[in-house]
Amino acid sequence: MLNTLISCIEDKGVRATPVRILTLEQFYKDANAKSLTELQILLDTVDKATIYRTLKTFEKHGILHAIDTNGDAVKYALCSPLCSAEEHIHTHPHFVCGKCDATYCLDKTRVAVDNLPSDHSINNIAVIVKGICPACKTSS
Questions:
Q1: 4: how many CB neighbours lie within 10 A of its CB?
Q2: Model pTM score
Q3: Where in the chain are the domains?
Q4: Are 99 and 58 in contact (CB under 8 A)?
Q5: In sequence order, what DSSP letters do the residues of 26-60 get, joined into one string?
Q6: Which of 14, 62, 125, 136 has a CA-to-CA distance to 7 between 20 and 30 Å?
Q7: Which CATH class is domain 2-139?
Q8: Alpha-carbon span 69 to 75, nearest angstrom
């Protein structure tokens, strides 16, 4: 696992420091997107400013992408291997559970934009799907 984390970071041209490795590890543990506050709790020995700088570095280099859930905080999720510092390639929606607040990418679902005027270009598509996740549905 450690080699995978280091490769993921270094393949994007970023130095793999211990804090960066620990931060990325949190995203590999489960599919849920994480906010700065959530990462602060998970990485209780690392200060908030360092985690914030790590998130911004990862976003800038195509390791993570930001999800604006229209909630209190921006959450971050792993990027596709196709993402780079120059271009994030995201055509999937993000799901937010109204019960447990779990947020994650719906990678197998694609969002298509038809009939875009020819003088427009798309940099990013942001679609938030809100509902009840399978775990909360089962526990009800």
A1: 11
A2: 0.81
A3: 2-139
A4: no
A5: HHHH-SB-EEHHHHHHHTTTS-HHHHHHHHHHHHH
A6: 125
A7: mainly alpha
A8: 7
CA 24 to chain centre: 10
Amino acid at site 102: A
Burial 14-53 (b: 16+ CB within 10 A, else e): bebeebbbbbbebbeeeebbbbeebbeeebeebeeeebee
Q: b vs e for 115-139, b when ≥16 Cβ sit within 10 Å of the residue's Cβ?
A: eeeeeeeeeeeeeeeeebbeeeeee
How far apart (Å, rounded) are the C-alpha atoms in residues 35 and 9? 19
Q: Supply 3's token pair.
A: 């080699």
Strands 34-35 and 74-78: antiparallel
Per-residue pLDDT tens listing for the chain (140 residues): 888 899 999 999 999 999 999 999 999 998 899 999 999 999 999 999 999 999 999 999 999 998 887 767 889 998 877 776 777 667 788 898 889 888 888 888 877 777 888 898 776 677 888 999 999 988 87
Predicted confidence at residue 105, as pLDDT, reads: 84
